[in-house]
Amino acid sequence: MRGKRTFAYRASVEGTVGPGPEYPRPNLRREEWSSLDGEWEFGAGANPVFDRRIVVPFCPESALSGIGERVGDVVWYRRRFDAPGADRLHLHFGAVDYQAIVWVNDVEVARHEGGHSPFTADITAAVRARDNVVVVRAEDPLADKTIPRGKQHWTETPEGIFYTATTGIWQSVWLEPLPAHHVRGVRLTPDLDAGAVDVVIDADGPADVVVDLDEEDVGRWSGNGGGRIRLDEVEAWSPESPRLYGVEVRLGADLVRTCFGLRKVEVRDGRCWLNGEPLTQRLILDQGYFPEGLLTAPSIEDLRRDIELAKALGFNGARKHQKAEDPRWLYLADVLGFLVWAEMPSFHQFSDEAMRRLAAEWTEIVRRDRDHPSVVTWVVANESFGLDGVDAGVRSGFTSGLRRITRELDESRPVVSNDGWEHSLSDLCTLHDYSPPADLARRYRSVETALDGTGSAHPPYDPGFGYRGEPIIVSEFGGLRLAGSGGWGWLEVPDDAAFVGAYGQLIAAFMQRGPVEGFCYTQLTDVEQEQNGLLTAQREPKVDPARLRPMTQTPKRR
User: Fold this and answer.
1) Domain 283-438+467-552 sits in which CATH superfamily?
2) For residues 294 and 63, what is the distance between their CA atoms, to the nearest angstrom?
3) Which secondary structure element, helix H or strand E, spans residue 265, and what is its range?
4) Which end of the chain is least crowded, N or C, by CB within 10 Å?
5) Are 535 and 524 in contact (CB under 8 A)?
6) Is 512 exposed, middle or buried (0-12, 13-18, 19+ CB in 10 A)?
């Protein structure tokens, strides 16, 4: 049992600029694997002409790809590789935007739709020992606004609150050799009250499961399908004490490692609770964009740094806005103790096909990320993106349906139906309000004034729905911008002193006596034309974090 947590940690936090050695899928990891990140042949257009080179996993629009421009809606990748000896060989893709077809040695091995979700091809029958050729065709029709694309703009020039688009491969690609009988998946559902974890193993036969805490064996189970492991030692996961239990699952020659946090998220009595204690969520809006890599961080250390900088500013979590983040970032949030609101990237033009696409991809994302203890809230839609102007009954039917799908996949977390306004059935009442501090202080003294609709141009609930006593969280506000910094923000201030003063007043408006149970400040970093981050795009603090931290952590008055 010794060394397991060390392996898990190092597999996810050590890295250098460029494609790194970290295992790309923290929740189901093996020691034997081969990265295919690095230089690939590259081309664009209807026919595959591989006349350029690209560095995977960076998209062609990014500087780190070696190309640095958009080259069209259809792109092609090619790379040669030798196959490791194994009974089965799987080829994994972290994310390819948006539709992908994969061939190995001219044999089609996979098709996938969804720009933020992973997929895997069993390439056993297509490979030979040496000199294999993998080809990937990716298509991302830029003008198609029915594709769930989040904050990526649908033209070549970013504008407003939208950013440079991403085409093709933007997360890691890797090979994984497997024995004939192996583990396909592990589902871990902690039960803090019972001091136990429910385990579901997707495998070819009975598996042995061992749970440890600090390298000491604290629970075991053997079997096929699912069972419950009662833990000899019970330690809850929280931002203040992010204790992780290591898990080993063995089936014959196959050994996989994962982990879980023992914690309980609740919504009741108008408040949020973590492990039976009231939780004030002090979140930062995080777009997850990087100047040189766009949606892809230059290295694992960049992902880690963003969390550490947010914590230095006093935040205990982030709303990852309109992006399904790299699973390594979620694992770092688990390790470092950082709450996460996980959000589905929206489409921007309504249609039956848009709804189908989004629901299918969201299902894949929830299944991928639901075992991370850091994830405490699911957000299925934002500000009626793609739903503005749609019949209110159709809109609320869609968002209520997404909430239902999410709860069927995971009952352990609250679900936000439409972050900001026009909620249907929602477990949290989330509001967006970019008003000045004095207006916020007046508005958020009571439930009645908080929900009177004056904080935005949209009502908080769709017709037929209303406030049911759920916690009120102002999940976007602020957006301070220093005068003369270029770009734009929501509220302009003349200098550092005014910035600090206004920031403190904004936080104080929600921490006064009143119904607000948490907040999410806009935003962590500048992004392209937006200049309203607490950090520059290069992650340099605009104001000393030590000056902002005590304000971020202003106690809630009861």
Assistant:
1) Glycosidases (3.20.20.80)
2) 9
3) strand 265-268
4) C
5) yes
6) middle
